[in-house]
Every structure is written in structure tokens, then in C-alpha cells.
Amino acid sequence: MIIETWNEKETFDVGKSLGDKAEKGQIYTLTGDLGVGKTVFTKGLAEGLKITEPISSPTFTIVQIYESGRMPLYHFDVYRIGDVEEMEEIGYEDCFYGDGVCLIEWANLIEEILPEDIIPVTIEKDLEKGFDYRRITIGE
Ligand SMILES: Nc1ncnc2c1ncn2[C@@H]1O[C@H](COP(=O)(O)OP(=O)(O)O)[C@@H](O)[C@H]1O
Ligand SMILES: [Mg+2]
Q1: Which atom of ligand 1 is nearest to the CA of 41?
Q2: CA 86/CA 83 separation, integer angstroms
Q3: I need a labelling partner for 140 at 20 to 30 A (CA). Which of 3, 66, 104, 121 fits?
Q4: Matching InterPro entries, A to Z (predicted)?
Q5: DSSP letters along 62-86, please?
Q6: For the chain, which residues score pLDDT lower than 70?
């Protein structure tokens, strides 16, 4: 599925509609260049899950867990991971196979431990369509 957005709010709302419908055990991967709107999308997803805490970047902690919503959100940013063993150390399996929703940024770096049944989300710009245009691809 491809959704085009033309401003920040529309991208937020795409995330929110996924969060509204999210079911426990779902794992989303989130791919896109710096500044494309990954955090905007994540904030929308969190809103859809009724999370009330502010969403920040998990870069320095690898995973940030939000538990104020209707189910936990495990927000991973694995950019700084050296080895997948670090994922074992933080107990990723409790998140991947747990009672909430996972959102993983830079998931390609941990491909070997990703379950088959993930939902890839890719956000891209197309400057020919304008500075604020984004194309969001959900699923294969
Ligand atoms: N259609 C759009 N969707 C999302 N963000 C947009 C859009 N148009 C412009 N922006 C801007 O792009 C930036 C995205 O930032 P951010 O979500 O932090 O990116 P990332 O987390 O991918 O690095 C914000 O400043 C936002 O206002
Ligand atoms: Mg970000």
C-alpha cells in the first residue's frame, strides 16, 4: 500500500491510523533518510496507541519502552548496535514476542534476528513533487 502525504500532519495521521488498528505482536520496521518524517510517523503511531508520554529518539538506549497506551510500544533504533548479541543483552525477544507493538528503525542492521512476519514501512521524498511531499509504503 502506498500513501502520499503533503505535510507533517498527514504523515502523523498515517501513523495514527496504524496505531489505532495495531495488534499485539506486530513488528513494524521503519526506513527512510534523516529528516524524512520517521519521528513524525512514530508520534502518530503512539497517539493511535493512546500513549501519553512524550516520544523521544531511542538512539542512545537502543530501545525505548512506552507503557501508558492500550498496549506497550517498543521503539527500537538499532543504528549504534555493533553486533546482534547486543540485542540479546537487552532482551529483545521479550519485545518481539511480547504483548505490544514493535517499531524498529535501521532494522536492516539486525536482519538475521527479524521474524519473517514484519510490516515494513518506508518513507521517501520526491523533490519533484515538492519539499513537503512524502511517499509512504506500507507492506511489501
Ligand atoms: N509530508 C511530511 N511528512 C512528515 N514530515 C514532513 C512532511 N513535510 C515536511 N515535514 C518535515 O520534515 C521533518 C521530519 O522530521 P523527523 O520526523 O524528525 O525526521 P526523521 O525522524 O526521519 O529524521 C519535520 O521537520 C517535518 O515538519
Ligand atoms: Mg527521527
Answers
A1: 17
A2: 6
A3: 66
A4: P-loop_NTPase, T6A_TsaE
A5: SEEEE-SSSS-EEEEE-TT-SSTHH
A6: 58-59
